[in-house]
Structures are given as structure tokens and as C-alpha cells.
Amino acid sequence: MHTRLTRHVTAAAVLPAVAVATLTACGGQAASTAAPPARVTVAGAQITRDAALHDALPAGIKDSDTVRVATDAPYAPFAMFVTEGKPDLTGLDYDLGQALGAKLGVRFAFTPQKFDGIVPAVQAGKFDVAMSALTDTKERRQVLDFVDYSVSGSGVLVAKGNPARIAKLDDLCGRNVGVEAATHQLQLLQAHQAACKAAGRPQIGIQTFPKDSDAQLALRSGKVVADVLTKPAAGWTAKTADGGGAFEVVNDPSASAGYGATPNGIGVSKNLPQLTEAIRKALQQLIDEGTLTRICDKYGGASIAVKQATKNGMVS
């Protein structure tokens, strides 16, 4: 999912936990002396510790009661600061981490990192896992093991009520469409020009903007009929902008997870195979209980939740 070619990331030490106690993370924060809570509520779901999964964790993680997590924040809706300038996090990845931690009986302690440094930091042993809408690719599997939790691609955001009656990507042919510059979504629109031509329709009037918020302004003013961005981000924007009254997402049944959808996963250090398997089993429980879908739906992306937890794309 993290396919943007240009990233602007704020890095800062944070206090992430399923409890209010202070945790140990890479930034040298003070260690908590309190045990992780036995029950946690995430996205309205009560999650209780699975003793067998906790017992299967690597010894070092059981001793510290902590899984160290690298993330890219802010990157809505996956990891966001609750208050600008404050360390507390929220978001889809953060909530999922808290739910997994509750299942495993440990804390998932999140620390923001620059996106391009996340994988190297896990490789170097500074973190145990990466949770950052990370696309599960063959190249990344060479250095991390992946437990996939979502499949998502690009979405189409339109004005509330969809006045231009956009139902699918083909409907953008001959229309002015906004998109953030230097993104995978721009490449998607450029590639679709051939389909417009083959159908005998005019080209898409692609208008690029420095930030997606600029594309949203163009959509508000009617300068474009749609804004193409990642589907989870589109869902979150539709859910939150003007209290949900400004935009809606085009739901094309042929691309329910978004156009060009790819799997996104939790990247785990290859030195911690026991942790990978414990996370996979915990995620499957969250899937079976409906909690994963509830977490994704909370951030406007219920359709991106996977139906089965896998390791590197394979069922164990």
C-alpha cells in the first residue's frame, strides 16, 4: 500500500501501548513495571489474552512484555498523531497493533521512523516488526517475513452525491481528474489513457497537485470531477471531511479493494520466526472474531480486510 514515490514524514519518539504505562522503545523511554492488561477494547471489540499464543512467543519478547514496532507517521489512516505535536498515536495500523498485543499478552510499542528507514531498522534489530501499510513484495520478503492483513489499491473520491455519476475507472475518460504528483495513482491514470483511446473516448484530463489536500480542494470547487488516491485514504477522507458530508468513494464491484490492489502486511524480523507465527495465529483469531473488519471499517476501509492470515502469502 505504501507505494507513494514521494514521502514527507515526521519522525518523533512516541509512547505507544495498550495501557497507559510508559514503555521501553528504541528511543530510550522508561520501562513499564506493570503487566499488560488481560483485556483490551479496540474498535468496540473486547479482546482477551490467549495464553497459548503468549507461551509461544520468543523468550526475549516475553521477558520484556513488548514488541517494538516501527511505523511511518503521520500517514492517514494507518498511523496518525492524536494531537499535532503530541506523541500519542491512532490509526488502523496502531489499533491493529493494540489488538494483536492484547491477544499475545504483550505491548506493541510504536515508534515513528522515516519510511525509507523502516525495513533497514528492523533488519538491524532496532525493531521487531514494521507496521506501516507496507506492501508485501517478493523483494521485501528477502529480508522480512510478512503476515498480510489487508489488500488495497487506488480509490476514486467524488463529491457527495456523485454528481458526475462516476461508477468505474473508465468513466474518468474525457473528465478532469485530480491526483497527487509523483504517486502510484498518477501512474495508474497515465496507464489508463490507453484504455480510453482503445474505447474511442477522450483522454483523462489529469491535473496533478503537490498534496492530495490540494486535489480535494479542486474537487470541492468543481475543477475536477474526482480525486484518485489510495482507497483506504479515500475512505478515511470520505468518513471525516466535513463530518462525512463532503465526499464519497466510488465502489466498483470489479475492484472492491481498489484498482491495482496489492497485499499489505506486518513485516517481522527473520530472526524471530516464533513471533511471525504467533502474530499470524493472533491475526487469524481477530479475523474469525470480526475484529479486523471492525478496525478497518473504523477508518473507512472495511473492504480491505483479508479473510485469512498467511505467512509470505502462504497458508500454514
Automatic annotation (TrEMBL):
Q: Pfam families, alphabetically?
A: SBP_bac_3
Ranges of residues in domain Solute-binding protein family 3/N-terminal: 66-303
Q: Where is the signal peptide?
A: 1-30
State the InterPro entries in the record. Solute-binding_3/MltF_N
**Keyword Signal annotated:** yes
Q: Which UniProt keywords apply?
A: Signal
Q: Which residues form a coiled coil?
A: none
Under which name does UniProt file this protein?
ABC transporter substrate-binding protein
Organism of this sequence: Streptomyces benahoarensis
